[in-house]
Specification:
- 33% of the residues lie in helices and 19% in strands.
- It is built from 10 helices and 8 strands.
- Strands 1-2-4-3-5-6-7-8 form an 8-stranded mixed beta sheet, with helices on both faces.
- Helix 1 packs antiparallel against helix 2 and helix 4 crosses helix 5.
């Protein structure tokens, strides 16, 4: 147990310091995250491209009409692999959910808005097929961290993307954003600029521009010490905009975590840093805040 705690602490330090490459710290988080109460199905295709693949995580004892979470990872739309986020799938599956983690095309292979088409394609696939894996297609939530939170927000708020897949945001019971960029024009980050065709980035590329009374309920989680995505301009402003049109929203800001360590708290081994798992579980089990949270 002491060794496990030491490894967990080491992974947090590496995440906070950025001492290793983007995937190495997450590999450490995977290594210290127990997976005994979840099982996975790897490499299911949801579209024609090699990056159109997803993994599904389910409770170890199986699932029957369980709530579904489609999780999009971050990486500034230039990096990321679903295998780096096994800890997310395992931890949420251990809470009784069916979890879908798709890959999506990244820059330079794809730029805005191609990765949104991919995200919507993955959600539409989930709506059609998740019952085969024990998930309830009537209880689908989209969730993401950083760039993945942007993807989740756009799928939930901008009906264009799901409509292209013959569906619509009405299939979603809610969306969950962790440290998401929802209003980032003019683009300051040099890596992000070509992804969004700077300086000709369209205004309607911003999630906050698509808020309406038809939006599904939201859970917005941010880190007060986030130096990458301003929590006030993004999560705070998004929460205010949603409330202004009557959409239920819960806004949570945690101390003692930053942009990177916030997603690490989705690991069951690191949840003491912030109760992110508890907040996500309560939101999903309450049907996006529509009912009192209770187990299935």
């Amino acid at each position: 147990m002491r060794g496990l705690a030491a490894c967990a602490l080491a992974s947090v330090v590496l995440l906070a310091a950025g001492a290793l490459s983007a995937c190495s710290p997450l590999s450490l988080v995977n290594a210290v995250s127990p997976g005994g109460s979840a099982r996975s199905i790897e490499s299911i295709g949801y579209g024609p491209d090699q990056r159109h693949s997803l993994s599904i995580y389910r409770p170890d004892k199986g699932a029957r009409q369980a709530p579904v979470i489609v999780f999009f990872y971050g990486g500034n739309w230039v990096s990321g692999e679903r295998d780096d986020y096994e800890f997310v799938g395992r931890s949420l599956a251990a809470r009784g959910f069916v979890v879908v983690i798709p890959d999506y095309r990244l820059y330079p292979q794809a730029s805005y808005p191609a990765f949104l088409d991919d995200s919507a394609r993955a959600v539409a696939w989930t709506s059609r097929r998740i019952a085969e894996y024990g998930g309830d297609p009537k209880r689908i939530f989209v969730m993401g961290h950083s760039a993945g939170a942007y993807n989740a927000a756009m799928v939930a708020l901008d009906a264009r993307w799901l409509r292209r897949q013959g569906s619509g945001p009405a299939i979603l019971r809610g969306w969950i954003g962790l440290a998401g960029p929802y209003d980032f024009l003019p683009i300051q980050n040099e890596t992000t600029r070509p992804v969004f065709h700077y300086p000709d980035t369209p205004r309607d590329s911003q999630p906050i521009a698509h808020v309406s009374a038809l939006a599904p309920p939201a859970l917005l989680i941010a880190a007060r010490n986030d130096k990458t995505v301003d929590p006030v301009r993004n999560s705070g402003a998004m929460a205010d905009r949603l409330r202004s049109v009557g959409v239920p929203v819960r806004e949570v800001v945690y101390d003692h975590v930053n942009h990177l360590t916030l997603v690490a708290t989705l690991s069951s081994s690191l949840q003491r840093l912030a109760p992110t798992l508890d907040a996500v579980e309560a939101f999903v089990r309450s049907d996006g805040g529509r009912t009192a949270a209770k187990p299935d």
